[in-house]
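Quick one, T. Sequence first:
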Amino acid sequence: MSPRIVKALIKKEFLQVARDPASVFVILVLPMILMFIFGYGVNLDVGRFKVAVVMENTDPQSVSFYQAFSNSRYFEALAGRDLRAWQDEITAGRVRAIIVLPADFGRKLRQARSPDVLVVTDGTDPNTANFVRAYVQMTIMNWQANNRLEGGDGAGDLISLETRAWYNPEITSRFFLLPGSLAIILTITGVIMTAMVIAREWERGTMESLIATPASVVQIILAKLLTYLTLSMVSLVCCWFVSVRWYGIPFRGSLAVLLLLGAVFLFTALGQGLLISTVTRSQYHSADLALVSGFLPSFLLSGVIFEIASMPYALRLVTRLIPARYFVSSLQAVFLAGNVWAIFWPSLLAMALLGVVFFVLTLRKTVKKVA
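Structure tokens:
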């Protein structure tokens, strides 16, 4: 292993990237565009839902209940007297829920009895329906608590539930989406860019020229790994800076730990990209294979958007072969919780193991083709 040869190869790689506008775009510009999309375009937070409160009796308790919804920052409340008048509105999606207070609502409260309240939601969008039900329940509990403090009739005898959310008290989706999006961005710069750039070298014949030099296959692959690892780490630091300074994402861990996690993940991603380019030796096929085996699994099966625990058992087993799955959980921990090594160590080990497998396969495939 000659340091002089590796240094020369690394210099050659940096010059090649600098002369390629597409590579500069993928490394520096594309991550910022994706940060903007994930920061502002992908938002799972709830807005102001339009709900109808049907009061079959306008007693003080029913009016007070309606006012609790009209004063809530989560709802735009509309008053009504008949459920049937709002059926078309909820069918058309103009109203997200109908809350029906029976005629004996106030009387049962005054008698310290629990009245039945009907909540009708639009089930065509299950995610939104779940949000609506949760916020309706929260608003009702807040109304009960306020009645208890004010000495309202009967409401103080109902059960009061107190909930707290650790690490993300306001349940802001951006706080877990943006850290997780770093795994998607590094997958693009690590897997897709590496696969396409090196496949282009195979197409042009420059890779064969490199192999024909005194440099060994290990030195060539090491030079490419160090070059693209350095460039991708620059991209990671830029994304971290934008997340913390621009979007205000809390960062409770250590930057050194974040860099360690990023380096190990990129080791795996670059290994996957090198393997894809070595197997296909075509930019077109490399792009397709990198998209199918890299980007899509990282986006759909890593836990960034969809909860892994809610997936079928067979699919949960498949996620164990996806490096981004381990990186996403580590990113969300280092940003929101801090340096939680109980999460980091298993993730680092799994990512490193997958990376070793990719590089061993790459070396074997490259040597076989040269022979």
